[in-house]
């Protein structure tokens, strides 16, 4: 029996790797002769860089960068030397979780540190970069990143704009002649888990701005500022990507990645599975077990368990999903390749207790799954 264990993290409880290890203990406890393979997964959001590093054996590197408020910070990135590929997670430099609630200000936060990470990757000789866009504290449409890479964003007086999305309202001149020339040869793929455009009711600011500290008045201000940035960009580039699905990801970073780097935008889970060699792993598996904190109707939009299940279905492999909770609409997962889904709790339990016992519960459920599989076989 060959079991492939590829969960996402269980937020605030276990990392994806720890979850996979807990699953493996359960399989081995029931069937010591079984072969287990752990492959932690993510969908482009929190934990994606770690999942990529663990799944591919990439080198973990660090760089000195600016955080979303311009303060000195240390950010981690991944380097796969054989493939000359860099893994860059936006949240490492410009992440929301690095700021206290009082510090979150969508008007002034910047992606400058992300540009610094790209510079590090280029210095290392990167020919390809995977950009992970989850967990952003920013709403500057990637303007900070462009500035760090050599672009000049100037106001009517020829002064450099202040950091942040609000300052884009004052943009008069966008000069990209100084952009790092190495970017032209860099193949960029950006992991997105949303299909929002840059502007409007479904845009970056209206949908995601409030969690970054934007009240309704600020949302209007920022949406207009990003619209002006899109206008100026279109004139400079001769193309307009504001309405592209995913342009609104990470405060408009999807827009910048596509417009200025020629990035391909794709679902994060697909990108990470490709890097992890999921097709080869599935070919060897008899059973696949995946999971994350919650499985519900929203999971169908590209969350890890569904992405894994779709790939397993195509390979003709059965999939079991273990989730902290099964929410409204979870039954739809059966149409996406899920053979069976189970909640972890073994009885009435508080959320606090469930989180504290997540590893134990994963082990117990996988023990039961292995015993049932053995009996059925």
Structure, described:
The protein is α/β, with parallel strands linked by helices. The protein folds into two domains: 2-40 and 277-376, Glycerate kinase, domain 1 (Rossmann fold), CATH 3.40.50.10350; 48-269, Alpha-Beta Complex (Glycerate kinase, domain 2), CATH 3.90.1510.10. The protein is 37% helix and 19% strand. The chain contains 13 helices and 13 strands. The protein has helices at residues 16-30, 48-56, 90-94, 112-123, 143-148, 204-208, 216-237, 249-261, 268-275, 278-284, 304-314, 351-356, 358-376; strands at 2-5, 35-38, 59-66, 72-80, 85-89, 128-132, 152-154, 173-175, 187-192, 264-267, 287-295, 319-326, 340-343. The strands form three sheets. It has a six-stranded mixed β-sheet, with helices on both faces. Helix 1 crosses helix 13. The longest helix has 22 residues, at 216-237. The N and C termini lie close together (10 Å).
Topology of this protein?
Elements: E1 2-5, H1 16-30, E2 35-38, H2 48-56, E3 59-66, E4 72-80, E5 85-89, H3 90-94, H4 112-123, E6 128-132, H5 143-148, E7 152-154, E8 173-175, E9 187-192, H6 204-208, H7 216-237, H8 249-261, E10 264-267, H9 268-275, H10 278-284, E11 287-295, H11 304-314, E12 319-326, E13 340-343, H12 351-356, H13 358-376
Parallel strand pairs: 1-2, 1-11, 5-6, 6-9, 9-10, 11-12, 12-13
Antiparallel strand pairs: 3-4, 4-5, 7-8
Helix pairs in contact: 1-13
């Amino acid at each position: 029996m060959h079991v492939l264990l590829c969960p996402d993290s269980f937020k605030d409880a276990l990392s994806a790797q720890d979850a996979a290890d807990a699953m493996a203990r359960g399989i081995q406890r029931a069937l010591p002769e079984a072969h287990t393979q752990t492959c932690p997964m993510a969908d482009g959001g929190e934990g994606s860089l770690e999942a990529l590093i663990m799944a591919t054996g990439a080198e973990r590197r660090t760089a000195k960068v600016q955080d979303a408020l311009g303060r000195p910070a240390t950010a981690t990135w991944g380097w796969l030397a054989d493939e000359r590929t860099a893994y860059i997670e936006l949240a490492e430099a410009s992440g929301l979780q690095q700021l206290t609630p009082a510090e979150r200000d969508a008007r002034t936060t910047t992606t400058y540190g992300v540009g610094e990470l790209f510079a590090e990757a280029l210095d290392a000789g990167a020919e390809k970069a995977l950009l992970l866009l989850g967990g952003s504290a920013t709403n500057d449409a990637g303007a900070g990143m462009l500035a760090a890479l050599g672009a000049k964003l100037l106001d009517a007086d020829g002064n450099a704009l202040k950091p942040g999305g609000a300052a884009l309202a004052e943009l008069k001149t966008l000069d990209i002649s100084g952009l790092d020339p190495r970017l032209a040869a860099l193949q960029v793929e950006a992991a997105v888990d949303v299909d929002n455009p840059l502007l409007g009711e479904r845009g970056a600011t209206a949908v995601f701005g409030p969690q970054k500290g934007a009240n309704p008045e600020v949302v209007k201000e920022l949406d207009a500022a990003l619209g002006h940035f899109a206008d100026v960009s279109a004139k400079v580039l001769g193309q307009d990507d504001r309405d592209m699905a995913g342009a609104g990801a990470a405060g408009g970073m999807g827009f910048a990645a596509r417009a200025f780097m020629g990035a391909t935008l794709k679902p994060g889970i697909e990108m990470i599975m490709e890097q992890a060699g999921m097709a080869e792993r599935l070919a060897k598996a008899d059973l696949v077990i995946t999971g994350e904190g919650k499985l519900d109707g929203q999971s169908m939009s590209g969350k890890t368990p569904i992405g894994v299940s779709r790939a397993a279905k195509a390979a003709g492999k059965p999939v079991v999903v273990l989730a902290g909770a099964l929410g409204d609409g979870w039954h739809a997962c059966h149409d996406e390749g899920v053979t069976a889904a189970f909640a972890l709790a073994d009885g009435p339990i508080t959320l606090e207790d469930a989180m504290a016992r997540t590893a134990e519960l994963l082990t117990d459920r996988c023990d039961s799954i292995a015993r049932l599989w053995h009996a059925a076989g």
